[in-house]
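Please, does this match?
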Amino acid sequence: MILANVIEIWNTAWPAGVIMLGLGAVFAVVLLVASEKLKVQEDPKVVAVRDILPSIDCGACGFAGCGSYAKAVVADPELIGKCAPGGADVSNAIGEALNLQISADGAPKRPVVHCRAHTNDRTYYAKYEGIESCVAVNALANYQACKFGCLGFGDCVASCKFGAVIIVDGLATVDYEKCTGCGACAKACPRNLIEMIPFAHENMMVVGCSSNENGKTTRGMCKVGCIGCGLCVKQTELFTIKDFNARMDYENYAPDEKTETAYQKCPTCVIVYRGKNAPPPRVKEVKKPAPKPA
């Protein structure tokens, strides 16, 4: 009796099972065909460019990531050269992939902090105990005497995805071994102290000050600020003085005897080197008092 019931159930159910299995196979084939017919064919040029890019999605190019930039470059080759981390090598590789001739458009840009004052070099009006943010502190008028100096609360540090910016004794400092040149730190600084300059050489000579105050005022605020004395200008035409502050022509900088003399003669040691193997800043020599006559 039980066996008869099982046989009856089987005879009733197996046709439905076969039908369901057949429908599943048909749907699978339909979906497979549809996926092949309807899938978006990716441009092989976009794939080639994307594979060349460093895939760090830093946003320095102005696009959301390397994938977006790759599509934009293929659509408009004039956008080649905007990948700061990749520099000239990546630009040339993209040009080859797209069968284009790429002209050299300068050295890769890297950030320099136009301030070299550490905590003990500055004059402070008050101790700050509020939100640890440069933007917040910058809104105050009674914290730091120099309104052009580094605040040292690390907004630039927080903005860097690569750990290339740290605060050393109150001063934002770039680790050029880690830096990709994305420019995020420059955008984060509320005082615009960080500038992206072309690094045509491994170490660049820069002016570590942004003060526009006259020499006397600057001396009262900072031990290592630019006083606009013009000694550097007398040594080489690469330097100019504007608003009491020395400015370097970074586009045309090349190390030579004249620039080195300017570096050595700077009375406040505000001219410094920045780069992967940059020497430490000069330290102002303290003149010893002349011995009293016996």
